[in-house]
Amino acid sequence: MSDEDLWRVLRGIADMPYGAGQIAALEQLLRRVDTADDRHLAFVTRMQATTGYVYGGEPAKSFVSFSWCLSEFDRDPQPYHQGHLHQLLWHFKYMVSGLLKFPEVPLDRTYAVLDDMERRYRAGGHSLQTVHKHRFRVADHVGDAEAAAHWYRLWQTTPRDDLSDCAGCDPTSQVGYLAETGRDAEAVALAEPVLAGRLTCTEQPQAILTALLLPYLRTGRGEAARDAHREAYRRLRGNLADLWDIGDHIEFCTLTGNEGRAVELVERHLDWLDRPPSPAAAMHFAATAAAALRQAGTATLYRRAAEGRPAAEVPASALADELTETATGLAARFDTRNGTTCQSEWIGRRLAVRSSGEHLPLSASVRRRPARPVSPARPAGDEPAASQGGSSSGDRGEGVRAGTGEPPTVTLPADAGPDDLLDLAEMSWGRHDRATFRAALVAFDDRFGADDLPARTAAHRLALRAAEHGDEDDIAGAVEMNRAALELYREAADEVSIQVVAGRLGVLLTRSDEAAEEGLTLVREAAEALDRLGDDRQRAAGHDRVALALLHRERWADALAALDRAPADAGGDQHLTARIALHRAHLLEQSDRADEARVAAGEARRLAGELGIGELVTAACLAYARLVDDPADAVDACDEALRSAPAEAELPVRVARARALLSANRAADAVDDFVEAVTLCVERGAEGDAFLRWELANAYRMVGRLAEAAEVAEEAVLGLDRLGAQAEADRCRHLLAGVYAGLGEIDPAVALLEQLAENLDGPDNLPHRAQVLEEAGGILYDVDRDAVAAERFAAAATAYRLADLRLDELRARRREAYAWFWCDDRPAALRAVEQVDELAATLAEMVEPAATYELAMAAEAGARVLTVEDRPDEALRRLAGVPDRLRSIEAFGEAAQVEILAGELLLRLDRPAEAEPLLRRVLGGLPADSRPVRQTAWLLARALDLLDRPTEAAALRAEHHLDEDH
Asked: Which residues, at least 6 apart from 54, have a Cβ–Cβ distance to it below 8 Å?
């Protein structure tokens, strides 16, 4: 590469975001630069590298590049050195701060750099304000409080100059010192005018907001502290160089009782400890993380794979011990270097941090402080079995779950015998009266549990115990008890009860593949026997059990046929009738018979409402909400369900209601339901909260609350990765990239899209890979980072070609040509146009509107590139017929854009007589306030000048407020 090419590469690297990518590009360029003979380029590249290393998370490398530049500056001063003197003096601050963070660097070396810094500042006539600041930082680091106070006073009283830290960073350091010395109110007062101003530094406002977390909290400004945390962390979360500050946010979460969020932050950044920016940052992060994990108790974290370590779930307590050892070990190394105990004492305080009082809600996805679950819970979306048409046991409506609220007081007859109590329990079970059911069984066990009972009575108790176990998902226990009950009923020769229990046992067995055939045989034979021996209710229940067994095997048509054999009114048992209607609705839904399913669900909803059974109402309303076409009707059904839902059913109802609200274009209302659903999920310890956070993030995006959308989507991606749900995680990454772009956070957006492209690197994923690469190019193009955008468009075009999507490839190549055009890389633009032309020739016969549009715009792109190459004749020929083709597909704006370019080319070719009517027609068709009006008017005025019509030209310029140099 020529020196000119190397300079162009350096300028492109300077536009890259700080981080590993920029560092890799800088080091590659340095290898090339060192083989060239351009001392100026070598110096400037290393100056850029020093900044890149500091802000990219590898400050140790900056010591080498800075030393090289300083030696080069002193050894043989050149005129170009003076142009970079200010930056070189500025880099001294990076060196002092950086050297303190590495315990292997002797403290004498830091003092020597400080002394050299002061000498050079004095020699250049600069203020020593920032020198005093950095002497303060050294004193504070080693724990010399008296010296720190002395240098702090000098720092504050010495005039600032152009080498002082910016108007945000200087107060940030002051806020930190005031907070450490117990002057929180002063810290807040100092920061307020700073935050009210305009902060443009790379480190602001996130650095000062982080410094304010504890002062805000300790002065009773909880909401300000919460907002500072959310705003600052969002800006810090993607920058390895900010690992120290992320530790501050973890500590803040711990202090405010948000151990769940603290653990999420630890988990998200834990792998950064494998490549920390400095030992100091690793020490601080490890200490704050250890404190958070000790407060989290029994949580587990997902630790990503690293060299020599596989990915694994790690108990919080074990990880806390490991991180404590890391933090204390590093602190001891610093103290050995410094000759004090300051760092060990400071780390000891970090390790001892615990929740300080009242919980301060922080998350955009969780409303309340999550309670630690005492037992495993179902994941989100695992709805009560009745809403799915499932079954566990019993005539009470196999699959309908009981509520968990406080049971009402139940009074039982004092003289009830054992069979009376069991019959009462059986009846209560069928009516969903769990309180009476349990009270009757407790009374039975208390009064008669030790008696030698008849076989039938013992069988009845076992059958009811099996129902309890089935309801608690102890299927193996329920099967064992039903088998024992069946033997006792056979001993008692109670034929009807034998068939009832055999049917219940059959339903349970069909829930596993291994015993499914045995279960189907049992349940069918039992139903046939009850047709002969039982009454209408028993017959209906028998056929309902057959339907449920077939449902478990996903044999929808056979299950519906079984339900059709049940007596219509179930022998007058309204509870059973309602359950059968609900099961019918589910089977019809699975059979894609939506209209019939909706009618059945409506009937189940009506019957359940008349009975006033909350769990049945909830299940029927959920089924109805899934089936109705009008989302408003679905919301109404969910509202009804919420009024009667038992506690464990609230989660699926909230999810269904939120989704219905989204469909009804009520995203703002959906947010509240999704937040409540995520909160419930977290409280129950259910893993499915990651999926719900993804939906919540989308709802936040839809209502324009992009900061919350970003926060929640980040949580969702972490959770989905942990679950191994890569497809869903990647879809959430795609959402998050769009949110970042909407927030103006271009680098994180592009980084996510590139990660997504890597994840999609397979032949089956080529179309999606191409799409995300093109989106990345579009984001970069929109912020005028055209050279990098062109590379993304080129990569997208290659992926489209491999996927045989030629029209999409044409679009990407066209966009590549535009990008090279705007970054003034003419050779690259011409190469792209050649590729566009070759591709367009293969697509010329396509007539659909999309092809017409792309072919027309490809011609326009080529014309623009040829225009700057001073080839106006060729450019104009390309545009022949293009406006008419665009108008034929109602692309009127693009047609006008092409005609304006044609008018400009006609003027360049000295053909104003042809340009004037064309431009006049375009100007007359443009909306008065549109952007192209002034350009068209200027070109038309120029044409009139060339046609020797100056009066008309002057009038046109006056009308559009133009001057001749516009």
From this structure: 62, 94, 98, 241
Give mean pLDDT in consecutive 10-residue pieces for the chain, a chain of 966 residues: 82 86 92 90 96 95 97 92 95 97 97 97 96 97 96 95 86 92 94 79 86 95 92 89 96 91 90 95 97 86 80 89 97 97 97 88 72 36 30 36 53 89 90 88 88 90 86 84 93 94 94 92 95 94 95 94 92 92 94 94 92 90 92 94 86 94 94 92 80 95 93 90 89 94 89 89 88 93 90 95 95 95 90 95 92 95 93 95 95 94 95 95 86 91 95 93 71
Question: Does domain 385-393+416-622 match CATH 1.25.40.10?
Answer: yes
856, containing H or E segment: helix 849-868
Closest CA to 22 of 62, 49, 61, 60: 49
Rounded CA separation 387/648 (Å): 13
Measured CA to CA, the distance from residue 342 to residue 142 in angstroms comes to: 6
Q: Output the six-digit token pair for 140.
A: 């504070």
The DSSP output letter for 309 is B
Residue 746: the pLDDT is 87
Which residues, at least 6 apart from 703, have a Cβ–Cβ distance to it below 8 Å? 667, 668, 671
Model confidence pLDDT, tens digit, residues 713-726: 988 998 898 888 98
Helices (H) and strands (E) in the chain, counts: 49, 2
Q: Which of 365, 321, 479, 504 is nearest to 426 (CA)?
A: 504
**Rounded CA separation 566/431 (Å):** 19
CA distance 338 to 717: 42
From residue 481, alpha-carbon distances to 175, 323, 411, 839 in Å are 68, 49, 28, 73
pLDDT at 405: 46
C-alpha–C-alpha distance, residues 102 and 278, integer Å = 6
Question: Three-state DSSP class for 143?
Answer: coil
CB atoms within 10 A of CB 817: 27
Helices 766-782 and 786-802 sit at what angle, rounded to 10 degrees?
160
- What's the chain's Rg over C-alpha atoms? 37
Is pTM, for the whole model, over 0.85? no
CA distance 77 to 320: 53
Instruction: Give me the sign of the Cα torsion angle 284, 287, 289, 292.
Output: negative
Would you say 966 and 934 are in contact if contact means Cβ atoms under 8 Å apart? yes
- Concatenated DSSP letters of 541-566: HHHHHHHHHHHHTT-HHHHHHHHHTS
Report which of 118, 115, 152 is spatially closest to residue 133, judged by C-alpha positions: 152
Tell me which H or E stretch contains 315.
strand 312-315
Tokens 């203020």 found at: 127
Give the Cβ contact number of residue 928 at 10 Å: 5
314 φ, ψ to 5°? -125, 130
Q: Which residue has the tokens 């038992």?
A: 646
**Residue 11, amino acid:** R
Percentage of the chain modeled with pLDDT above 90: 70
- Residues 64 and 43: their CA atoms lie apart, in Å, by 13
Question: How far apart, in whole angstroms, are the C-alpha atoms of residue 694 and residue 715?
Answer: 8
Q: What gap in Å lies between CA 414 and CA 443, rounded to an integer?
A: 10
In terms of DSSP bridges, do strands 300-303 and 312-315 run parallel, antiparallel, or are they unpaired? Answer: antiparallel
Contact 34/6 with Cβ under 8 angstroms? no
- Torsions phi, psi for 563 (to 5 deg): -65, -35
Kind and range of the H or E run holding 505: helix 495-509
CB 144: neighbour CB atoms within 10 A? Answer: 16
CA distances from 320 to 237, 287, 296, 813 (A): 21, 9, 10, 52
Query: How many CB atoms within 10 Å of residue 154?
Result: 15
Give the 3-state secondary structure of residue 301: strand
Peptide bond connecting 17 to the previous residue in cis, omega within 30 degrees of 0: no
Tallying the residues shown for the chain, one arrives at 966
Tokens of 497: 């009860």
